[in-house]
# Entry
Amino acid sequence: MINFNGKITDPSDQLINNRGFLYGDAVFETLIIFNNKILFWEDHYFRLMSSMRIIRLDIPDKYTPDFFKENIIKIHNNISQTGNSRIRINIYRSSFGKYKPEKNTPSFIISCESINYSNYELNKGHYEVDLFKDYYLDNQLISSIKSNNKVINVVASIYASENGFDNCILLNKDKLVSEFINSNLFIIREGKIYTPALKSGCLNGVVRKNLFKILSSSSFELYEQDLSTFDITQSDEIFGTNIAQGIFSVTKFRKNEYDCSQTKKIITMLNDFISLD
# Structure
């Protein structure tokens, strides 16, 4: 028995024995399905397997791309009425123990919500960001995976909400720019695009990875390098990338206001790339 919010009740194994809940001992992927097709599926799958290896989870032989794809499509077909959905795969260590688990056997949960868009559209209107400086990200390998240890992102989201911001820029322990709360960060300055390298502690984002491919055959020059907060203030445009939104544009940071003319071209390139994939 457990005391749940003051009520003595039977424990749910999915909660009380779930190491993802107890210790953050889990990894996850967020996916988007447009027109019944999973976007960038191979990139998501291989990142998920890499994340499992990094936290020393066993990978069963049945955990193939086709196995997960079949299970994803099964719940998508059951939930989505539009052919478009947002999927979350959570894989957690399904064993007892305290900090030291008894086994490294994984279990997974796949959830789905229907969405009403089938391509990416750039956000319209005011979108203001600020720095979040209460806590800093570790710039090491484990920071680049999608684990359930996202408390800094959660607290930063609360800070943004309490202060009227749409998002926040997260810094690493060297006080360099790492990423947004929920996305990778890019700036455009004098026609050149810059983004923090993975060593900054940013997520190894799937849209980020594919944008590198797209931009490599465009007129834009792309650079991975250290970025300071001063670099942000000196940029002409700022945008973020994630699988749920594709690309979003920032209109204000501190006293600086930003255009989105080049970002509009980039999101068009992203949609074209998806349609050809």
Notes: The chain has two domains: 2-114, 128-276. The domain at 2-114 is CATH 3.30.470.10 (D-amino Acid Aminotransferase; Chain A, domain 1). Residues 157 and 204 are 20 Å apart (CA to CA).
